[in-house]
């Protein structure tokens, strides 16, 4: 489990094609400072398992399904990525509960700057719209963000300079794909309410 608070911006150093997967080599000295093989690290919001710990990074295998369901399939050598270690007991939950299980892929539609913040608009897949509410939480590329506006097929977030500087949103370009994970609480509520209505 993660909190959606990005610890550092990492870099894809190598992509190795395996039989039915891709092995990523990612530079990230902060998140690997106390990591060991088998640990979980969120890469742009996707929970990956450390295969090998390197001096200032790690390798992780990504199965084809994950490549198809996330933006990881678009990575190239040099791609910048948001990184976060898994939450440990006793830590503050500064963002919201993020599982590292991507629900869908959107893309940056537009960005508008103002004096103290920047508004980014992302496309929103139709099957995720019902889980997104204004002032609610969403994880975009593994970053816990508050939804400032939501429409029939889009959502907006308002980002302060600190967030832009400490995540990959600062240099994100229009048309770039993003991983979306909706608040898991919304999905549980939907299931429980649906089950309640199905009771005789």
UniProtKB/TrEMBL annotation:
GO biological process, one term: riboflavin biosynthetic process
Assembly and interaction partners: Homotrimer.
Keywords: Repeat, Riboflavin biosynthesis, Transferase
Residues in the signal sequence: none
Domain named Lumazine-binding: residues: 1-96, 97-193
Lumazine-binding repeat boundaries on the chain: 1-96, 97-193
PANTHER family: RIBOFLAVIN SYNTHASE, RIBOFLAVIN SYNTHASE ALPHA CHAIN
Pathway: Cofactor biosynthesis; riboflavin biosynthesis; riboflavin from 2-hydroxy-3-oxobutyl phosphate and 5-amino-6-(D-ribitylamino)uracil: step 2/2
Organism: Corynebacterium tuscaniense
Function comment: Catalyzes the dismutation of two molecules of 6,7-dimethyl-8-ribityllumazine, resulting in the formation of riboflavin and 5-amino-6-(D-ribitylamino)uracil.
Entry's EC annotation: 2.5.1.9
CDD domains: Riboflavin_synthase_like
Reactions it catalyzes: 2 6,7-dimethyl-8-(1-D-ribityl)lumazine + H(+) = 5-amino-6-(D-ribitylamino)uracil + riboflavin
Top-level enzyme category: transferase
Xref: InterPro entries: ATP_synth_asu-like_sf, Lumazine-bd, Lumazine-bd_dom, Riboflavin_synthase-like_b-brl
Protein name: Riboflavin synthase
PROSITE patterns assigned to the protein according to its UniProt record, in alphabetical order: LUMAZINE_BIND
Pfam families: Lum_binding
One GO molecular-function entry: riboflavin synthase activity
């Amino acid at each position: 489990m993660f909190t959606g608070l990005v610890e550092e911006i990492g870099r894809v150093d190598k992509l190795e094609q395996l039989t039915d997967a891709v092995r990523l080599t990612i530079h990230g000295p902060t998140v690997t400072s106390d990591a060991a093989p088998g640990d979980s690290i969120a890469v742009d919001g996707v929970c990956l398992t450390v295969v090998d710990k390197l001096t200032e990074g790690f390798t992780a295998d990504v199965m084809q399904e994950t490549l198809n369901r996330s933006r990881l399939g678009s990575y190239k050598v040099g791609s910048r990525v948001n990184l976060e270690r898994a939450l440990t007991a006793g830590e503050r939950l500064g963002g919201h509960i993020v599982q590292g299980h991507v629900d869908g892929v959107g893309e940056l539609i537009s960005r508008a700057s103002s004096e103290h913040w920047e508004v980014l608009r992302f496309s929103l897949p139709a099957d995720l719209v019902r889980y997104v509410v204004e002032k609610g939480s969403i994880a975009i590329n593994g970053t816990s963000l508050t939804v400032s506006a939501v429409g029939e097929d889009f959502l907006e977030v308002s980002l302060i300079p600190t967030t832009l500087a400490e995540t990959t949103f600062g240099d994100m370009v229009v048309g770039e794909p993003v991983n979306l994970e909706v608040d898991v609480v919304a999905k549980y509520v939907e299931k429980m309410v649906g089950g309640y209505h199905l009771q005789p």
